[in-house]
Structure formats: structure tokens, C-alpha cells
Amino acid sequence: MTSVSIPEKPIQKKSAINPIIIIGALFFIFGFVTWLNSVLIPYLKIACQLNNFESYLVTSAFYIAYLLMAKPSAWVLKLCGFKNGMAVGLVVIALGALIFIPAALTRVYSVFLVGLFVQGTGLAILQSASNPYITIIGPPEGAAKRMSIMGIFNKCAGVLAPIALGALVLANIDSFNATLLKLDAAQKVIALNGLASRVILPYVIIVVVLAVLAVLIYFSGLPEIDTEHEDEAVAAANSGKDSIFQFPHLILGVLALFFYVGAEVIAGDSIIGYGTASHIPLSTAKYFASGTLICMVIGYFAGILFIPRYISQQKALVYSAILGVVLTGLALVTPIYVSIGCIALLGLANALMWPAIWPLALSGLGRFTKIGSSLLVMGIAGAAVFPPLYGLLVDKLSAQEAYMMLIPIYLFILYFSTIGYKKGKHVIAV
């Protein structure tokens, strides 16, 4: 079986647990920061008086950094190594969170978007380091299981993030909206400035936490992994290869990740807006994103229990893609509360896609692992493309009908999980 390379020097026994705990903490952090966007979209829509398309530029500004900064992220890792690269990523995220303070004080949407781009840049570095690290740190057939454990940290943070931020910035938001309609222009500006200022305290706390974690990571005993070493089988398979583009299964994996992240972010970040568009009070709808994330946590637990003991990570990806198509189809034709439930359940369909795509795409890369990882991180930019397209469809059609765009996304992932992951190499399912 072709696989990603294993470190030439095994991790010392005293460090065997610590790497999982440390990387788990990092997955919690970037899960928390990422899923704040589900609240920022409706919050900034009100505070900055935006339409649906404009409000979903939150995801574009955040995730486009993964495309633009993935290559520099690879350079950072090559220069600093995995551990120090993680510390650098945390510092950059903290700088992005810090930008939210002048953004809130001026209530200028473009400044918020700059802050989100800088946060995305830090996360690109962090993801480029942490995802291949957890993939390579143990046997390749158990990579999806380890990624599922990381996913629980990530999505538990995602459950908490919209609840915590929503409680602070969307408190009494329905009565605020009702009052806003009765105010004259000058009073409206004052009220909106007050709403914008609500975001300052939580982001100051985020800055402090990230700075402390960066110091802790820098001085931690996290071991470095040698991705330049290739075992004999991988070296033989890669003989004569001098470009990452000679691995077609990786390129298809990048595309699969591009589509998957777009679908995941639509399911998590649009569900609040879907509820309010269906005349459900925002004070109630603000909890819907946590429902999607709870379903993802359930999916990750299933991955831990069943992969690879009862099902391969490749088969898990097949079944997840099929479930995504079925749930999307039901969401398009069922009554509103059932439809919202189907969108929340997409969290279950999406849960095992990330853990499965990474090891399938990185399989057999050997010395090309770091650059392959940076390309996969670039695939996260799918979240910069698809949510605004969803917002545009909402403005043209309806919040429910716009979900039809998810069906071709899941069909491509189904293609990768059945055929695409084998392109250019002879493998069995891992």
C-alpha cells in the first residue's frame, strides 16, 4: 500500500501523548475563530447595513487568505518547522483579531474584512502545519481516526463560538431591529455604532488568549517531523518525479477539499440567515449554527468508533457524499422546519469528509508532503467562493432554493471518493 512517509526517527515515548493534546488545542482554537463567522454574518449585516451578497463577503475575506497565503505558509514551515510555524500562525491570528477594534470603532465594513483576511492568513499557516502533522504522526490507515479526534476539538469549539459571540453581540437583537426602524438618520447612526462596539470586548479576549497560546506552543516539547525522508516503497514510486503536479490524485483531492469546504461553510454559516428569511426570530435562529456543529461532532465520534476497524476512510467518504446529496434534496422540497433540520444534518454528512480527503490526497507524496499540504490548504478557499454565490442566489431566488448548488458539490466529492483518489497510482483503499 502506498502511503505518506513516516518520520525516520520515532517520537520519544515521553512525547507520545503531548502532541495530540497540543494539536487538539490548536484545532479547538481555529475551530472557535472560524465558526465565529456564522454570527458575524448576520451581525455585520445589521451593524454595517448590508445585503445578503455583501454580508457573505465575510467568508470570502476570511477564506481567500487560504488561497493567497498557502504558498507563503509553506515557506514559513520550511523556514521555521512545524512547531514554530504554529506559534507564528497564532500570532498572526491575534493581529487579525486586534484589527476588529478599529473596525468596530469606525464601523467600516472594509476594515472588518481586512481583519478577517489577516485571521485567515494566520489560520492558513496553522492549518498547513497542524493537518499534515496529525496525518503523518501515526499509521496512515488510522489518519482519518486521528483527524476525527481533532475534528471533535474543532467542532466543539464551533458549537461554543456562535453561542458565546451571539450572546454578546446579538443580545436583544430583534427588539433592536424593531427600534432601528423608528429612528431618524442621526439616531440610527448612534444606535448602529453602539451595536458595532459590542464586538470589541470578545475580540480583546481572543487576542490575549491567542498570544498566550503562541508563547506556550513556542516553548512546548512538540517534536518535529521529518517529511523529507521517504521509505523505500514511496521513494521508488516517486523516482523521476520533480513536480507536485505529477500526482493527479492530489490535484483532485485539492478540488474535492475546495468543494467540501464550500459546502461545509454554507451549511454552518447560512442556516441562521435561512431561519430569519423564513420569519424565524433571530433570537432563536442564532442557535441553529450550533445545531449543525453538534451534528458534525456526532459524525466525528462515529469516525473514531468505526474507522478503520469497521470501515475504511475511503468508504466513509463515499457514504458521506451520498448522504450530502440526499439531505440537500430533502432540504429543497420539505417544509421549513424539516428543511432547516436537513441543513443541520449536513453537519453529519460533512463530518468525515475533511478527515478522509487529507490522507487520501497526501498518500504517497513523500518528500512532496509539505507542498502538497500547502495546496490542500489552498483548497480551503472554496469557502471564499461558494457562500457569496449562495448569498447571490438567495437575493435572486430564495434561501431554500439556493441550496440546490450543494448537489453538484457533493457529486464531485463522490467522484473523488470512488475514482479520483486512485488517479495516477495503484492503491488500495486506506
TrEMBL record:
<dbReference type="InterPro" id="IPR011701">
    <property type="entry name" value="MFS"/>
</dbReference>
<feature type="domain" description="Major facilitator superfamily (MFS) profile">
    <location>
        <begin position="19"/>
        <end position="425"/>
    </location>
</feature>
<protein>
    <submittedName>
        <fullName>Sugar MFS transporter</fullName>
    </submittedName>
</protein>
<dbReference type="InterPro" id="IPR036259">
    <property type="entry name" value="MFS_trans_sf"/>
</dbReference>
<keyword id="KW-1133">Transmembrane helix</keyword>
<comment type="similarity">
    <text>Belongs to the major facilitator superfamily. FHS transporter (TC 2.A.1.7) family.</text>
</comment>
<feature type="transmembrane region" description="Helical">
    <location>
        <begin position="111"/>
        <end position="131"/>
    </location>
</feature>
<feature type="transmembrane region" description="Helical">
    <location>
        <begin position="20"/>
        <end position="44"/>
    </location>
</feature>
<feature type="transmembrane region" description="Helical">
    <location>
        <begin position="84"/>
        <end position="105"/>
    </location>
</feature>
<feature type="transmembrane region" description="Helical">
    <location>
        <begin position="343"/>
        <end position="362"/>
    </location>
</feature>
<comment type="function">
    <text>Intake of glucose and galactose.</text>
</comment>
<feature type="transmembrane region" description="Helical">
    <location>
        <begin position="316"/>
        <end position="337"/>
    </location>
</feature>
<keyword id="KW-0812">Transmembrane</keyword>
<dbReference type="InterPro" id="IPR020846">
    <property type="entry name" value="MFS_dom"/>
</dbReference>
<feature type="transmembrane region" description="Helical">
    <location>
        <begin position="374"/>
        <end position="390"/>
    </location>
</feature>
<dbReference type="InterPro" id="IPR005964">
    <property type="entry name" value="Glc/Gal_transptr_bac"/>
</dbReference>
<keyword id="KW-0472">Membrane</keyword>
<feature type="transmembrane region" description="Helical">
    <location>
        <begin position="247"/>
        <end position="267"/>
    </location>
</feature>
<dbReference type="InterPro" id="IPR050375">
    <property type="entry name" value="MFS_TsgA-like"/>
</dbReference>
<feature type="transmembrane region" description="Helical">
    <location>
        <begin position="152"/>
        <end position="173"/>
    </location>
</feature>
<feature type="transmembrane region" description="Helical">
    <location>
        <begin position="56"/>
        <end position="77"/>
    </location>
</feature>
<dbReference type="Pfam" id="PF07690">
    <property type="entry name" value="MFS_1"/>
</dbReference>
<keyword id="KW-1003">Cell membrane</keyword>
<feature type="transmembrane region" description="Helical">
    <location>
        <begin position="200"/>
        <end position="219"/>
    </location>
</feature>
<feature type="transmembrane region" description="Helical">
    <location>
        <begin position="402"/>
        <end position="421"/>
    </location>
</feature>
<feature type="transmembrane region" description="Helical">
    <location>
        <begin position="287"/>
        <end position="307"/>
    </location>
</feature>
